[in-house]
Amino acid sequence: MEEKQPLDRVARIQADWHRERPDLDVGPQGVIGRLHRLADRLTEELCLVYRRYGLSEGEFDVLCALRRAGEPYERAPGELAAHTMVTTGAMTKRIDRLERAGLVTRRRSRDDQRGRIVALTEPGRRLIDEAFTDHMRNERRLLDLLASTEAETLETLLTTWLSRMEDPSSPGGE
What we know:
By secondary structure, the chain is mostly helical. It contains seven helices and three strands, in the order H-H-H-E-H-H-E-E-H-H.
């Protein structure tokens, strides 16, 4: 006889709702609730690495966006905001902090004197190269909690779901 696993937090919440509102289908909580809890846990685990380098999650994202730009490792603040999906106001605060830390510089754009360009400094490049290497090691550790076939299946499912949410006209989207 197969041993039944104890209920996790999401299953207990679903059971409570099923008892209180048997007229509702609480099945979606099984996926959405677990994804939400998993996202919170993953964020905690990822932030451990960022803090090791004296960075917040947002600052790490800015440095990564600059490093991914390739030499000379610079972008306009608006470009950085688009590459990190934050508002320009939030981007300004991140850039201010990174500039004070000597990890980035700001200068006027050669093309538009009103515009600014943010660039990685050499210490910033060295820091993000080291932090990103550590970050990838950490992500591997987290993903290795799954078998490789499970990770591949999950990536396929998440890619499909995300594409349908981002483009409702895609096949299967509403």
